[in-house]
Amino acid sequence: MIWNSGWKLASAVSNAGGLGLIGAASMYPDILVEHVQKCKAATNKPFGVNIPMLYPNIEEHMKTVVDNKVPIVFTSAGNPKLWTQELKKHGIKVVHVVSSVKFALKAQNAGVDAVVSEGFEAGGHNGREETTSFTLIPIVKKELSIPLIAAGGIATGRGMLAAMTLGADGVQLGSRFAASQESSAHQLFKEAIVDAKEGDTALTLKELAPVRLIKNAFYDKVTALYQTAPTVEELKLLLGRARAKRGMFEGDMEEGELEIGQISGLIDTILPAATIVENIITEYNLAKAETAALPNL
């Protein structure tokens, strides 16, 4: 949710009954402090901060969540052993995002309180294994003794029920809230999410950090470069700097990186976060009731 989830979205989700997360990956330390403090002022409910450990400023970000008594931290893209125990010493719950059983077990052994298993349908940075959520959830659940949160390809109440039927204890949604009124993304990016159809996203740049994005002019350049068997340095040169900001935050729909999940093909409205939460809960309860009417086999 880089460039999408600031204090406005996080507080709106928490106020609606979910757990809102501030996406810290795109933030300098002083910006994260501002968002955390504004989120605390906007909600009296729990919220969390998502901190990918491959980004700089990690020590400053961790100091911010400790100093401001943020109750929950989601970590990803790194070794969970590095910060889990330090955060837990301060009473902070730690959740680590993984894309495989191997890394789920490493996170559990590091002492995290829960794991997010993210299927490769998800938007943004992703696992190299290309394991779908439908497969990943039960495989990870079988091996864990801590709570499992499912992510990747979930945007509706029916999707939530499916994930929990497969063994998830909860779900994490990104793409659906990227297309919310409170999302900090550019309006043009929100409209691109709504307009996206099946097959309009792809996972690419595995040699750097696998990322799922909407196909546009930049994606076409990546595809063309792959025809030449490029080196990692050539891929880095094409990617350049701040391309995700250019697309999702600044609204360059052609040359920007537009990170979103496959489930964007099912998203057709930009709604308030509270309405999204309400719709998901309503649909979940309706779908759950419908399953009770299914015949026994």
Furnish the topology, listing elements before pairings.
Elements: H1 7-15, E1 20-23, H2 29-42, E2 47-52, H3 58-67, E3 72-76, H4 84-89, E4 93-98, H5 101-109, E5 114-118, E6 124-125, H6 133-143, E7 148-151, H7 157-165, E8 170-172, H8 175-178, H9 187-195, E9 201-204, E10 211-214, H10 217-226, H11 232-239, H12 243-249, H13 273-292
Question: Can you tell me about this structure?
Answer:
The protein folds into 2 domains: 7-184 and 273-292, Aldolase class I (TIM Barrel, Alpha-Beta Barrel), CATH 3.20.20; 188-263, no CATH class. With 297 residues, the chain is an alpha/beta fold. 45% of the residues are buried. The protein is globular. Helix content is 42%, strand content 14%. It has helices at 7-15, 29-42, 58-67, 84-89, 101-109, 133-143, 157-165, 175-178, 187-195, 217-226, 232-239, 243-249, 273-292; strands at residues 20-23, 47-52, 72-76, 93-98, 114-118, 124-125, 148-151, 170-172, 201-204, 211-214.
TL;DR?
With 297 residues, this protein is an alpha/beta fold.
Largest sheet: 7 strands, parallel
Strand content: 5-15%
Outline: globular
CATH domain topology of the largest domain: TIM Barrel
What is the top-level CATH class of the largest domain?
Alpha Beta
Helix content: 40-55%
Q: Radius of gyration, rounded?
A: 19 Å
Summed up, the domain count is 2
Low-confidence stretches: none
Q: Topology as H/E string?
A: HEHEHEHEHEEHEHEHHEEHHHH
Structural class: alpha/beta
Cα-to-Cα separation, first versus last residue: 42 Å
The tally of helices reads 13
Rounded average pLDDT: 93
CATH superfamily of the largest domain: Aldolase class I
Q: Count the E strands.
A: 10
Strand order of the largest sheet: 1-2-3-4-5-7-8
